[in-house]
Amino acid sequence: MPGKRARRHLSQLSEFARGLIIEMKTAGWSTRRVAGQVDRSECAVRNCWEQWTREGTHARKTGSGAIRKTTRREDRSIVQKALVDPTVTRSTIRGDVSVVIVPQTISRHLAESNLKSKRPFRALPLTPEHRQLRLQWCQARSMWNVTDWKRLCLVMNPGLFWGQVITV
User: Tens digit of pLDDT for each residue in 90-116?
Assistant: First the structure.
């Protein structure tokens, strides 16, 4: 079954399976026979046996990856800055931290603390009552002409002259 082989290939060897592989290979079994017995690929069996002969251990290696550039204290500082000022940007936080880090690191630390980026409102959210009042105001003035609107603008801004262009 190809699907089973793919899953078996991607899964990690358990501590028990590694010990079993070492015992079978020490007893003189072939790599192909051991692989069939523990239901793993020959490559996985070979790698486990080579690690045993090279290092004398069958323990899994610790995961590789980038070394953390920030300490736990700096991580808390990043989160604290975001909590104190929700409008602070990643570049501002990056400038405040004493270590050179990329903006994605800051985003990851904030996400680990369940802080998501917040976008400012484009407009204030209106309640149904506000919407109704705005609609009534617009309907009452739907038939106004230019002179009516100019009169309203003069009432609102008495310093304007008739000839000025009003920009909104």
Answer: 888 888 888 888 888 888 888 888 887
78/71 Cα distance (integer angstroms): 11
How many angstroms separate the Cα of 156 from the Cα of each of 11, 114, 138, 145?
A: 73, 46, 17, 17
Residue whose structure tokens are 């104190």 = 84
Write out the DSSP string of 62-105: PPP-PPP-S-HHHHHHHHHHHHH-TT--HHHHHHHSSS---HHH
Q: Report the distance separating Cα 23 and Cα 33, nearest Å.
A: 13
Token pair listed for 104: 């994605």
Rounded Cα distance between 125 and 130, Å, is 9
Positive or negative torsion for Cα 130, 133, 138, 144:
negative
Position 3: which residue type? Answer: G
- pTM equals 0.37
- 112-134 pLDDT per residue, tens: 888 876 666 677 788 899 999 99
Residue with tokens 């990056």: 94
